[in-house]
Amino acid sequence: MQSKSGVFHFKAEAFRCNMLGYLPYQQMGTYMLDAADLHANERNFGMTYLMPRHLAWVLSRFTLEMTDMPRPAQPFEITTWVENTMKFFTSRNFKVTAGDHVLGYGRSIWAMIDTATRQPTNILEVRNGEMMQWVDSELECPIAPPTKFRFGPDCRLERSVETRYSDADINGHINSMRYIGMALDLFGPDWHREHYVRRLDAAYMAESHCGDVLNFYLEEAGDTIGVRIAKVEPATGDETDVCRCSILV
User: What does CATH list as the number for 6-134?
Assistant: First the structure.
């Protein structure tokens, strides 16, 4: 029987690193999602199995807490495992290492949806609940569970962005890691030289699509910055929150 956890090897290609010389959060998040997909496919509950059955995993919460990031051409490994599975949600963790050095950890919460109706699907009914055999609640993930930033009256509009073709993913909605990249783009190079992002929490609340206008709101509370991303309805100007980020520096 395969191990419950999986270890996957990557390299920080130079063209994926930022102008400061290390892998940015959205790229590390993408590698984690790659590891999750590889792990799930090897155990027959990944997108290769799900897509022909009109099912898909949808990311609901994502947390990255990194003490260091890989540099150009540096190899690193991501260990991933399923911590818990319930009727409509499952939690998956990540550990990032470079040799004997632990670079950081990640946590994520996922839902499974019917791609035709966009409604949640009972995870425990897929493949007769076989996913439960891969749950490993004993592996340690020492970072805190996903948290939410509480926005108050000081939240201010910082930027409006019209999403484009390359922002959308295979499901037709804006890629989850693009939200993280756009949130971090609210801060310029000088800010990033002076601040290292220690932890980032993202809560995905609704879908947005190519051509949608997104408003980015910003609020600071000590060493934590909240970013609220809202989709603007063209006809009415009403807003729907699609993603909220909490950035700890």
Answer: 3.10.129.10
